[in-house]
Amino acid sequence: MNKIRIGSVGLGRLGLQHAVNIASRVQHAELAALCDVDAAKLKEAADRIGVPRRFAAFEEMIACKDIDAVVLASPSALHTGQIAAALAAGKHVFSEKPLGVNVAECKEAEKAVEAHRDMVFMLGFMRRFDESYQYAHDKVAAGEIGKPILFRSYSQDPEKFIAGAIAFAPHSGGQFLDMAVHDIDLARWFVGSEPATVYAVGGCYAHDEFAASRDGDNVSCLMKFKNDCMVFLFAGRTAPHGYNVETEIIGTRGILRIASVPQKNLVEVLDGGGVRRECSQNFLERFDSAYVNELQEFVNCIIEKRKPAVTVYDGTRVSEIAYTCKAAFESGELIKF
Amino acid sequence: MNKIRIGSVGLGRLGLQHAVNIASRVQHAELAALCDVDAAKLKEAADRIGVPRRFAAFEEMIACKDIDAVVLASPSALHTGQIAAALAAGKHVFSEKPLGVNVAECKEAEKAVEAHRDMVFMLGFMRRFDESYQYAHDKVAAGEIGKPILFRSYSQDPEKFIAGAIAFAPHSGGQFLDMAVHDIDLARWFVGSEPATVYAVGGCYAHDEFAASRDGDNVSCLMKFKNDCMVFLFAGRTAPHGYNVETEIIGTRGILRIASVPQKNLVEVLDGGGVRRECSQNFLERFDSAYVNELQEFVNCIIEKRKPAVTVYDGTRVSEIAYTCKAAFESGELIKF
Amino acid sequence: MNKIRIGSVGLGRLGLQHAVNIASRVQHAELAALCDVDAAKLKEAADRIGVPRRFAAFEEMIACKDIDAVVLASPSALHTGQIAAALAAGKHVFSEKPLGVNVAECKEAEKAVEAHRDMVFMLGFMRRFDESYQYAHDKVAAGEIGKPILFRSYSQDPEKFIAGAIAFAPHSGGQFLDMAVHDIDLARWFVGSEPATVYAVGGCYAHDEFAASRDGDNVSCLMKFKNDCMVFLFAGRTAPHGYNVETEIIGTRGILRIASVPQKNLVEVLDGGGVRRECSQNFLERFDSAYVNELQEFVNCIIEKRKPAVTVYDGTRVSEIAYTCKAAFESGELIKF
Amino acid sequence: MNKIRIGSVGLGRLGLQHAVNIASRVQHAELAALCDVDAAKLKEAADRIGVPRRFAAFEEMIACKDIDAVVLASPSALHTGQIAAALAAGKHVFSEKPLGVNVAECKEAEKAVEAHRDMVFMLGFMRRFDESYQYAHDKVAAGEIGKPILFRSYSQDPEKFIAGAIAFAPHSGGQFLDMAVHDIDLARWFVGSEPATVYAVGGCYAHDEFAASRDGDNVSCLMKFKNDCMVFLFAGRTAPHGYNVETEIIGTRGILRIASVPQKNLVEVLDGGGVRRECSQNFLERFDSAYVNELQEFVNCIIEKRKPAVTVYDGTRVSEIAYTCKAAFESGELIKF
User: Fold this and answer.
1) Structural contact between residues C53 and C33, judged by C-beta atoms closer than 8 angstroms
2) Residues of chain A contacting D259 with CB distance shorter than 8 Å
3) Which residues in chain D have their CB less than 8 angstroms from residue A258's CB?
4) A59-73 per-position pLDDT tens digit
5) Residue A271 to residue C242, Cβ atoms within 8 A
6) Would an 8 Å CB–CB cutoff place D168 in contact with chain A?
């Protein structure tokens, strides 16, 4: 079987991890090229991973005939443009979230994808590829917990990364866009319905800097979905203990909790602190295998001429919801979808 | 030291437990009399516990000179009348929640208490007397978790008691009044502030019977408190695993979770179900010692001529909030306090 | 019903707790008298608890007609003498462990008990009265875990109490006599058989002072019981996290673990230490209700003219086994019973 | 970098997994050939994985010039012969445990390895490559728990696989050789010392069939190591809940527990069984990534011309200890090394 030759764009923390994963952990894939505007970073990464072809310009990379697909981990504002260009150049596209920085852009991406129905397009909602989330979703899909009553999901970043979060705040779109977007995706996936209402609250509990972006360091929202399921989401930047992504689905016949203790491994420590589990500290650690699995699925879809379960419309829908949450937060009013 | 002679009213499940606790587990107290309109139930309980004096009429009981205090576990609609009468008769009063069945009644109770400032009046918010809740509250009060960001509290009754809940639904006032009232009390106690807004959702996920009372079998609400703390409450009647009262307080420097596994004891079972903890099944089991502790505090207050930390105004305030949650649930609209 | 009037002997930490429990937490009991050779300690305790009758001499106390029973928390070397004297004086006797400081003494105690078959005699194996141990024992007795394969039990005292343990070492009889004796009692109770062999190891890992008493700061033994069940016991003085008494029973159809996390309550803390449970720090905290329950059973046996399930022969047998463990530890050889 | 071309021998459950791992999960490696005497099994696996070169005869495979290394998952009795032959043919060798079926064979393997010091030889003690065991070992090595006092390790196979275990019993060497061998390896690795004494017990608690091989279905042993550390090992075939490999290291300053709940993932289920974690069911599931990591280390050693930390002498030593445990079990006597 010929390997899928992938050009990967963007060498931030996640982009770098995608590059390493493609090069060494995704089957039937080959890291054919790397692209980044930062020449030094590009050279360092390409040398280390062992990628001969390097591009400063995205357009040049997608002009290459022998590249089959691109992985976009570029700045969010570039996503929709690069999606359209790459599809037009005949490349399959895997894009990191968000699909676009506003809903209009998402609609543009939809058009591009619709114009190239023979190509594979996939969005990076990696949590769906975490084995624990998949295991829980299988149980829900099999009816093991009955009808969903309450879906609760948290995304908490450790306080120790707060400086970066503050610096990025003016560009992040806020906690709902930047963090809760994954929880919104999970809510739609698990609940199988769409939000009907949203009320959002929050504030700057430890770091007033977020107020300048009309955001909070911790926010939450309560939504009612069209099938009546209650959805409560919480996103925060000040977790004292680690990177805490946890989800609970309360059903009429059973309850599932995913990662309610964000333990980094199976070691339990008994010392002056009591009996304790040390915690994962960031998304790359917690979702290490999920990042591999999602790219594997992307590659498998290309090979098997299938379409991923995550569609471009999921990207638009999640963005719409996140923007509505943000509007609810900013206005302090209940919003009906 | 002379014992405080208590007359206890009402022999439902909780009233019976109060009677047993006074008779045998509360120091410096004596169960002097029992009162219930059901003659058979009264005889059975009084014989078993060993209480010579029995009353069908509350008025007769409080006419007794040698009774120092009354414990009210009577039907909610009788509370405020009995409170006023007992205080007027010179008895200290411990009343089960709710203070009254509407806010007007609560205000009547306030007046009665204010008219007898030399008497001890206490409301049965027993969770404050659970050792785990007290331990957590001490930590919060000591500033160990910093400023509160999110307060989340669940009250879930097991599905197996659903028939009783349905039968009682027309009289219960709904889940916010009947169940979440304890969570509202905890929220005010832990957060140290009052609600500013509330949005409430829910529905009949398994049992349509609750709709007739404009209620759901599971409900939740998101509030913003005046000090900006987010408060999320969930109350449900269909828990598959047991009686699940859990609370989380996320602060800027630490997070506390109380009873996130509602384990009945310290036994872990490893069998075909995996590694598992069996759960408490009802409030009497979970809060067994809290029910003793609260009555002990009531008795201690009488002896030491102190006033309990839980005041009649807490009862009114919690009722007002619960009614507002109920109104928010019924209207589907955001309510600002 | 008349209350059982109890005279309590010895005002060390546990003796004091017994006194408080009798005075205020055990039903149908009355703390009629206190006895201790330390006059200051006696006055302080008796004043605080409110006990009018105080004795320096045990003989004087048991000469009182209106005392029904004695609770012995005196020095171990006095136990058998006091047991015999109290029984001869017509008093029911509850004695703390150990029954005697050697097996010959235990046999004396047996004779005294046999000579007064109308009196209640009970030994303080309090773990049998802990609700978690009782719950587990009920499951084992009901056959829920099948046939016992391995019984494992730990008794660990926190390092912070090491100074007291070292000071007491010459008189304690060693870890097997002083600590593992409770695990030996549990083993016989759960397994329902007697040891056939024992091999014991251990040493001074942190504190060489124990070597002077031919003991270790941490020791363990592996026994084979006559019904083939394997029994592994571990006793240590250097626990970094708290007072850790845990037990596991592996059966052919199920496994039970009691207190494998020695959590002090239901609060979980999430902070820089990860997700953690704070631990119980001493036996009085961990077995608070068990100490009440065992005295309640003692009193109930007196009232109901029953005999406790724990007999004087259990005391002798456990002592014999503990001495054999100690001999195995000292010799380094396998001992067959 | 050229890939290391590996020929893999044996297509049992573990052999098959090794083949898949080499083909798709180990970096810088290529599955060049497969070898098995079962032609049907060989064809099926080679077709599925996509390996063109297939061998019935091991000798033919190692005669190939373009094979760099072999992975041995063949029957235990063939290990030492194949190790010697492969090394003589200039191949690096990774062998599954056990090194040999008796100590004499192990010594033969040592000689073969010593005769080819330029080749990489590695034994499959995969637990050392599990991330949780590595994390714990790093803490121990860094002195975080002080001096080791007690090392306890369990290996339990689920009851549901008992038929296979009984069928294999005459050839397995018994529980100490077949299962506890991994715990012995861990003990030496964590404790950093060698056993001085061993006492072993056990029996047929559920399945008398093991008696015919002078073995039990569950066995345990207590060893004292030369540095005084106590070591307790337990191996069983009748676990009711799953595949339970857990380890505890009690030190003078801290305690570590690895996998004390053998949870299969991060999902917690709340249902009629209480709050529960579902368990891993077999070694391939539990040690999935460890099996990849150990082969990765093997390949990395070849590439970097390093020697693995696990040596042939570890294989001999572990076998010697396991045989001594077995002898102790069979004799019922204490054995001093």
Assistant:
1) yes
2) 266
3) 266-268
4) 999 999 999 999 999
5) no
6) no
Percent of chain C with pLDDT over 90: 97
Contact flag B206-A238 (C-beta cutoff 8 Å) = no
Helix extents (H) in D2-38: 13-24
For residue B254, give the nearest of C257, C260, C269 by CB distance. C269
Q: What's the pLDDT tens digit per position in C46-73?
A: 999 999 999 999 999 999 999 999 999 9
What is the DSSP annotation of D90-116?
A: T-EEEEPSPS-SSHHHHHHHHHHHHTT
Q: What is the pLDDT of residues B160-187, one digit of tens each?
A: 999 999 999 998 889 999 999 999 999 9
Residue C115 CB-density burial (10 A; 0-12 exposed, 13-18 middle, 19+ buried): exposed
- Which helix (H) or strand (E) covers residue C20, if one does? helix C13-24
Report A:242-261 residues touching C (Cβ under 8 A): 242, 244, 261
Contact D267 A136 (CB under 8 A): yes
Residues from chain C that touch D220, judged by Cβ atoms under 8 A, are: 150, 222, 230, 232
How many angstroms separate the Cα of B64 from the Cα of each of A147, A302, B93, D162?
A: 55, 87, 15, 73
The rounded Cα B204 to chain-centroid distance in angstroms is 24
Distance in angstroms (rounded) separating the CA atoms of residues C255 and A249: 29
Which value does ipTM take for this structure? 0.96
Q: Nearest residue on chain C to A241, judged by CA atoms?
A: C271
Domains of chain C: 4-119 (3.40.50.720), 128-286+318-336 (3.30.360.10)
C101 pLDDT above the threshold of 90:
no
φ, ψ of residue D2 to 5 degrees: the values are -75, 145
> What are the structure tokens assigned to D107, written together?
């010594």
* Residue C175 to residue C169: CA distance in whole angstroms: 9
Average pLDDT over residues A203-221: 97
Per-residue pLDDT tens digits for A94-145: 999 999 889 999 999 999 999 999 999 999 999 999 999 999 999 999 999 9
Per the prediction, chain A carries an average pLDDT of 96
Question: What's the CA gap between B31 and B295, in Å, rounded?
Answer: 12
CB C11 within 8 A of CB C33: no
For residue C33, which amino acid is it? A
Alpha helices in chain A, H assignment, sequence order: 13-24, 39-49, 58-62, 79-88, 103-114, 131-141, 162-172, 175-178, 180-191, 283-286, 288-304, 312-331
Question: Residue C99: pLDDT above 70?
Answer: yes
The continuous run of DSSP H or E covering C147 comes out as none
Is the peptide bond prior to B98 cis by the omega test (within 30 degrees of 0)?
yes
Burial class (CB in 10 A: 0-12, 13-18, 19+), D105: buried
Mean confidence (pLDDT) of chain C: 96
pLDDT tens track for A2-18: 899 999 999 999 999 99
d(CA D299, CA D294): 9
User: What is d(CA D316, CA C321) in angstroms, rounded to the nearest whole number?
Assistant: 38
- Measured between CA atoms, the residue of chain B closest to residue C266 is B259
Closest-CA residue of chain C to D156: C250
Beta-bridge partners for C207: none
Q: Which residues of B touch A253 (CB under 8 A)?
A: 240
pTM for the full predicted model: 0.96
- The structure tokens 């039970």 sit at C256
CB of C135 within 8 Å of a chain B CB? The answer is yes
- Judge whether B270 is closer than 8 Å to chain C, CB to CB: yes
- Between chains, do B253 and C271 touch, taking CB under 8 Å as contact? yes
Give yes or no for C269 touching B (CB within 8 A).
yes
Under 8 Å CB pairs connecting chains A and D tally to 69
CB proximity under 8 Å: C 29-58 to B: 50
